[in-house]
Amino acid sequence: MNDLDDLVAIGRGDPEGMLGSIAGLGGQLQKGYDLGRSAAALPLGEGVTAVVICGMGGSGIGGDVIRALSAGRTGFPVVVVKGHELPEFCGRDTLVLAESFSGNTEETLAAYAEAVRRGCRVVAVSAGGRLAALAEADETPHLALPTDVGMPRAALGYLAGAPLGILEAAELIPPAEEDIDRTVALLDAASEELGPHRSTEANPAKALAAWVGDRVSVIWGSSGVAEVAAVRWKTQFNENAKRPAFHSVLPELDHNEIEGWREGAGAGFAVILLRHPGESGRMGRRIDATLEAIAPSGLDVRQVHARGRTPLEWLFSLIMTGDFATVYTAILHGIDPTPVPVLTGLKDRLRG
Ligand code: F6R
After folding, report:
1. For residue 1, what pLDDT is reported?
2. What is the overall mean pLDDT for the chain?
3. CA separation for the pair 124, 291 (Å, rounded)
């Protein structure tokens, strides 16, 4: 096991600099948002009856962020599509954002082509690839993301900031500038506290990685922003640390999962419970009761609290803690956090 307080070992354990990309999350969010707001020739927002964001994996989570943040705040549904098919309702009054960092993801390309075929109002978002070429040929607006990070999941700030900016420019959401500014400041400060220079004793992300150790992590969050953060933590445990991990959502898990946590069943698992100040009192009481109900399982539970005052700050502060914790988990176990050879190998095989 690597020592998380040995900076040389950390440098050796992260040769492609995933920790640096994570620390840049705030700057990315700002840049993505600015790019989205100032993009040329965007479709009109007037008359839009639904927003559909298509994307997979690290790009798709950008859509989840927008869906969670707009819940209850827009007069139209925001739907995230993680697959080839566009929902039946998509047509001329649907704004479709097709997001793929590489621009080469099969499912997103298929959904994009279908959106163009149906005459939807489409914006393509990528750092190049086939999606950029297709958009040029189709004369579809294309937003070019910066290419300074190597991996889609390390570009989440761009992938969430750009659609926020696009929706704002189309006047489909209220101006987010102030919220973005605060979130960026919060993330910049958090990246110091969670970064490699802080010792495990003073660093919640390193401490969490040490606490998870060899166990399988199960991430819980209440529906909304904590749910999206839980998905991100789970997928980051998978892709950065190359470990199985699972997520589930409250209150739904109270209607099935808790039955599985019978006496003694918790051995080998670590539950990370993501909390934020926007939870209702009813949810707080439910969480307490849930923990009490599963106590005989012996499950080890650790709570991680969001920072800030707005849903954007809560969501991104939870995401940043998880991003750092999962990279530290990788380094602790001698795993290079950046490459995802199984995932890319499968994509290549399917493409071939
Ligand atoms: C790899 C990663 C993946 C990709 C996914 C889709 O770092 O995060 O989950 O995001 O395979 O690829 P893109 O984002 O290029 O469309």
Report:
1. 76
2. 97
3. 43
Determine whether the shortest distance from the Cβ of 112 to ligand 1 is under 6 A.
no
Q: Is the distance from CB of 67 to CB of 163 less than 8 angstroms?
A: no
Ligand 1 atom closest to the CA of 159, numbered from 1: 14
pTM of the model: 0.98
Please state, in angstroms and rounded to a whole number, the distance separating the CA atoms of residues 292 and 146. 47
Cα–Cα distance between 127 and 340 in angstroms, integer?
19
CA of 26 to the centre of ligand 1 (A): 20
Average pLDDT over residues 251-269: 98
Catalytic residues: 239, 255, 347
Checking if the pLDDT of 262 tops 90, the result is: yes
Amino acid at 51: V
Q: Which residues of 158-184 are buried (b: 16+ CB within 10 A; e: fewer)?
A: bbbbbbbbbbbbbebbeebeebbeebb
3-state class (DSSP) for residue 115: helix
* Gap from CA of 314 to ligand 1 centroid (Å): 24
Q: How far is the CA of 227 from the centre of ligand 1 (A)?
A: 20
What average pLDDT score do residues 171-179 get? 96
Ligand 1 near 62 CB (within 6 A)? no
